[in-house]
Structure formats: C-alpha cells, structure tokens
Specification:
Layout lengths: L12 H16 L8 H29 L4 E5 L9 H8 L2 H10 L4 H6 L10 H15 L4 E6 L7 E4 L5 E4 L12 E2 L5 E5 L2 E5 L2 E5 L2 E13 L6 E11 L5 H5 L3 H12 L12 H26 L11 H4 E6 L6 H12 L4 H11 E4 L10 E3 H7 L1 H21 L3 H6 L10 E3 H8 L3 E3 L2 H11 L1 H6 L4 E3 L6 H7 L2 H11 L21 H26 L8 E6 L8 H17 L10 E6 L7 H18 L8 E4 L6 H7 L5 E4 L11 H7 L3 E4 L5 H8 L5 E2 L4 H10 L3 H7 L1 H12 L11 H9 L9 H16 L1 H13 L6 H13 L6
Parallel strand pairs: 1-2, 1-11, 2-10, 11-12, 12-15, 15-16, 17-18, 17-20, 18-19, 20-21, 21-22
Antiparallel strand pairs: 3-4, 5-9, 6-9, 7-8, 9-10, 13-14
Helix pairs in contact: 1-2, 1-4, 2-3, 6-33, 11-12, 11-14, 13-14, 20-21, 21-32, 22-23, 22-29, 28-29
Length: 817
Amino acid sequence: MTEMTAPKSPISSKDFADEVREQLKYTQGVTPEQATAADVYVAASTAVRRHLMDSWMKTQQDMVNGNTKAVGYLSAEFLMGRQLRNALLNAGLTEQFNEAVKELGFDPQDVVDAEYEPGLGNGGLGRLAACFIDSLASLGVPAFGYGIQYKYGIFRQEFDEEGRQVEHPDYWLANEDPWGHVDYGRDQKVSFGGKVVEEDGKRVWQPDWSVRAIPVDYMVPGYESGRVNTLRLWQARSYDEFDLLAFNKSEYMEAVEPQVKAENISKILYPEDSTQVGKELRLEQQYFFTCASIHDAIRVFYPGEDKPDLTTFPDKITFQLNDTHPVIGIPELMRVLIDEYGYDWDTAWTITNKTFNYTCHTLLPEALEVWPADLIGKLLPRHLEIIEKINDQFMAELKTLTKDEAKIERMRIVTGGDKPAVRMAYLATYAGSHVNGVAELHSQLLKDVTLRDFSDLYDSKFTNVTNGVTPRRFVKLANPGLSDLITEGLGTDKWLEDLDLLEGLVPLAQDDEFVKKFAEVKHQNKVSFSNFAKKEYGYDVDPNTMFNTMIKRLHEYKRQSLKILEVIAQYADIKSGKVKIEDVTPRTIIFGAKSAPGYYMAKLTIQLINNVARVINNDPDIKGKLNIIFPVNYNIRVAQNLIPATELDEQISQAGKEASGTSNMKFALNGALTVGTLDGANVEIRARVGADNFFLFGMTVDEVEAMYANGYNPAKYYESDPRLKAAIDMVAGGTFSNGDRNTYAPLVSDWLTKDWFMTLADFTAYHDIQSQIETLYADQLEWNRKALLNTANSGYFSSDRSIEDYLERVWMTGPLK
C-alpha cells in the first residue's frame, strides 16, 4: 500500500456550489435558473476534474522522474461505468456535491442520472480492466490504461414484440463528455498496408495509408492515495484533406472516403467479423491502439530524446496484454526497435521479452485468436516478416528442448499448410515474460490443457492471479446501506483500502441482532431495486419474494438454458398439480445479458427467456409465486442497483469453461448466496466463504472430460428425467411461441443431439439443490447469517489484492514514493 495519503478535500459545500455556478456560467453558458440537470452534471464534473488536476500532473511527473516502473494495461475494453460518483468518492467531495447541488435547486440523483454510461466493453473483460486501473491508482502504482475511444459502444439492446434481441447504435458521445480531454498535440501516426523493400541491407516498410491516433485522456483517481493515473483512449482520424474538387462534382462519397476509412477504426467495439472486411477492421483496431500506445510510452518516458536508450524501456514500463487483442504489439515493438531505432534482433528481442506479459482469459480453443497470415501480410507486411522470424527462432529453440516432433509441430506460432495462420496466444506466451490465468482452477487448466505444451517446457513463465473487483464502486457506491453497516460492525472505514478487514465481521454472524440489521439492509435494497425496476422498465417486482439473479454475457457455456429449463419445469409441476402452489417459495428471477449480434443460438435463448416470462408472468394460476424479468440493455448502472438486492446468485456454467468470473465476487461481497458449479473462481469463493455457505451442484472438470471421452448422449437424460422431458416438450410444443413448433426447434435439436456444454446432464443435480435452497430460505435468520459470512469472507476478492499479486508475481514493481 502506498504511504502517500490524500487528506479529505477542505473545500466547503458553499465553495463547491460557487465552483459549479462558475462552470455553469463559463462552460455551459447558463445561469443556475436556466440550467438543466444535464448542465449541472457537466459543470459539477468539470469542477471535480479541476480538483484532481494537480494530483494528476504530479503523478505523471513523479512517474517519469522516479525510479518506479509504470504499468501499461493494454485492453480492447474498458467498461468504466458512470464516472461522477466514483470521482467524487475518491476526491473526497461527495458530501460537498450533494449539498451544493441541493443549494442550486436540484436533486443529486437527477444530476448523477444525467451522465450517459459509456458502453466501452462487452462484460467481464472490460469491467476487470476498469477495476484494475482503479486499484492501480488507489495503491499509488503509476499506470496507463490504453485502449480505444469507440464512437459507439458495444450496442444498445432492445427486445422486439417477439422477445428477440435487436441491436441499436449506442452513441454514448451524443452529449457532452466532461471527463475526456482530447490532446491533439500528442497524436501518433499509425500505418497500414503497402510493401516491404530492401534498402541498404535493411528491410523497409512502405505503407499504403496512415491514420492519426488522437489521445483522449480520462483521469483515474485513486481512493485515499493522492494519485491520479491516466486512461488514454485513442480516436482514429484521417490525415487526408477533404477532397473539395470531388465534392464540387457531387462525388460526395469519394470526397469523404479517407475520413470514413480512418474513422471506421474507432467507430464501434467488436465489429462483426464473419466477413473478410470485418476481420480486417478488427485487426486494424488491434494494431491501431497498440501501435499508438507503444509510441506514446516512448514519448512519455524519453521526452525530447531523439535517440533514447531503449534498452532501459522494460525498466520504465511493463505492458500487460489483456487477452489476445493487443498481442500484435509484440511484433510492433520489435519493428520499432529494429527499423526505427536500429537495434539488432537479439537486443530487440531481449527488450520485448522483458516488456510484455500476457493474461489469458479463456479455456475455449475457439476464443484463442488466430489470424490468417495473408490478412496480416496484407495489412501489416513487415509485422508478418517479424512474426515468421520469431516462429523460426522458436522452432529452433524447441529443438534444443525436446525431441518430440509432434509437440514441436503443435506449438508452431505460424501454422504450416497452404493457408498458414498466426496463433496470437502462442505468440504472447513465447514472447512475453509471464503468462497468467485468472483463477486457480483456470490457471491450472491452462497449464494442463490449453497451453500444456508450453507449460511443459516453460513452466516458470506460468502463474496465477485470481481476479478481483473494486469495493469502492461495488460496495461503497452500489450498497451504501451495507457499507455503513460494515463500518459500524468493524468500527472503521479502512476496509475500503484493505478488504481483508471484512474478516472482522465473522464473529458478528453469531450476533442475531447484527444479522437482523444485515437482513434489513438487504430488504431495503430489494425495495430500492423494485422501485428502480418500476421506474426504468415498468416491472412490478415484489420485494418480499426471493431475488434470484443470473447476469452473464449470453453464451451457451454459461448455461442460461439450464436456468430457464428449471423454471419451465417448476412451472409445469405447478400447472400439473405435482407441486402445490402454496408450497412454492415465491421468487423473482432476474436475467441480464447481451448476446453477440451474430450468435444465433444465444439470441434464440434470449427470445425463449423473454417468452417464458411472458407466459408465466401472465398466468393467473401462478399467483405471483414465479415472476421473471429481463431488464433490457444490462449495464453497470443496472448492476449497481441489482447486485445489492440479490439473495441468490446463479454461477452455473459447465465446469472447466468459465475462466474466473467477477460477478460471483460482487454478489458474495454484497451478501448473496451462490448456487454454482466448481468452475472458475467459484472454487475459491466456496473455499473461502465455507462449503456450508455455498450451494454446490454438477459435474466436476474431470467428470466432464470423462463424459466427453466416453461419448455424451444428451437424449438419455431427456428420457430419464420426467421433469426435464416435460420442460423441453413444452418448448418444442409451442407453449412459449404461441403454438409455433418451429420457433425453438434449433434449440431443442441442439439440446437433444449435441448439448456440448451438458446442460441436460447437470439438470437433475441442479433441480435437487433447489430443495436445499428453499429449506434454508424459509429460515431467514439462518439464511442471512450465511449471507453475512459470504460478505465477511470475500475480502480476498478485492482487485487491490489482484494488483498486489501482479506487482509481486508479474510486474516486479510497486507504488510511487
């Protein structure tokens, strides 16, 4: 932990109100009487940013002048969430803001709600990056987050009348963005295409076209650290002038073609890549931000030097590759060192190897990026040459380490054959200093399965850093009632800086009165979410029902289908009279998820969930015992309202498929019990909160692999479990599609003939665990005692601890003095 602690801001509420008035006048051009909540939001945000400016500048100065190695976190996603409340908390200005805004005649929540949430991430990967840069600043570690400022977010989700997901552009920059500072004077040139020629014995890249990368800087204030780091997101712009001659000939598209081509690079997160053009755009995006970031880091750490000594570059900054998206940065740094600064291959390789580290976020082979070599050669011909030379070096090195020719062939970075391809995960594993998984189980499976050949020969590279979440946003801001109760119970608020202090709550779990206080906080959070759901979506949610939540990116391996089939089976039991309605524990089942636009089966699952909800919620026989809601366009704002209210969290992915998960950590911290498999970080959560405080079901990794090996027949499970059969038959028979038997036929066919993630095999075990859940829920004191123990024992899952592990195991650096 950094020793530098920032005092609480001495400014008064009245002074802060005057600052907001000043910003309203000079930035918004309105009086307080003329201002809207959006005006006050911009003015207040600008005022807060000014309070952070001195610390931001000092942090940058100390980073460049000091001896502490910085961290460059390269990520295609940064799912930051709204900034105002977080910045107020870390700047010590929350109370001043609340009072000042009231003085100006506004409701603080209305002002906060005027901020549009940037959708610059798809889920866990981007939110993890956001938690990490928050923790880096809070620990006082100098860092840059490097990514892209997409003009449009992932997409704005809506549901049509049939319950299908419909994607709309998420133009989050439609209104003013007071947090991002565009710095045109620190732009970088990024080039593409062309050819490589020989000149004076050197390989020289002659690109066809270039774009201008313009940095947009966002302050990342640390909590109580006095440090403010930088999130630097890049915009793509054209160098080519507007073609006035073409425009005057009415050739309008030709006149703006260069601008459109350039700006497409930072237009949208994860463009559809099922076409060649889409693949090119994705690779352009990845190279665009990594190239700009590497050049920016050289500029930052060697200011004004024409010929810097870049052998010291790994002592200045270490780059963390957040998944495979930034891996093209490895050949880029090699190219810069060799072609632009004249280093020989071996020196450049040593620098590069010491500079990069790689986090692998998946166990699914299809998620490990592989780029066709001809595509890389088309867009980045010099980089393909360098990658091929790295591969040749690697192959030669392998022959000194093993005689196993089959293993050597399996480990190729550039595959053989008529259509060679580049395995980006293999390139990162070989070229970087460290490779880490993101949970103990995931890291072990990386070594044993996904990257087994590499771990056999390069075991010292591999380590684990279990993911974490920031308690500032996901407890203090999201759950103020629980935050206050924790502080009361511990007698200090220092747990926000050291989450291990939550263990002090363990004895209080035996104090019935404290447990009842904890239960009351949860109930009030449920009431608050019910009000939020009514206001935002028109849902009528009974806060006296169990809140049972599954928020996940919609993917088959996460098994939303398992949850909805169990709901259907319970519905069928009630309708058939097998289960008496008075014996059913009332539940509100809440889904939150987006599907990738081109993922047909995932989108069909969303449609099914919405239509199961439509049927069950409108069935008078159910009498409110089952209620299903699916808030549209799930995001950080919804999460901050929903997670504190949740009592039962679903983490039911097939064992061995989820890398870690972070929603499981957020739920446990906020006092929810988990029903889950031994997958990802569930293993560590269960070990820490206690097996008696976690609802475990389903096959283990070894059992899953054995079933794959022996042959899996899902139809056998369909025939052997009457409840499962009844549920699938209802889907197939048109119960949830107005009698149309074809609507969900692809889902039914997949369940019965393929079911790759073994939803049907785990269905009976998942049903059986429900009786334990309902029995415990009937004893509210005991349920909340166990929920409190989840909170008390989840301190390990702070992103501060994750960063401390990275500092010790991977980055070999620490906080600024």
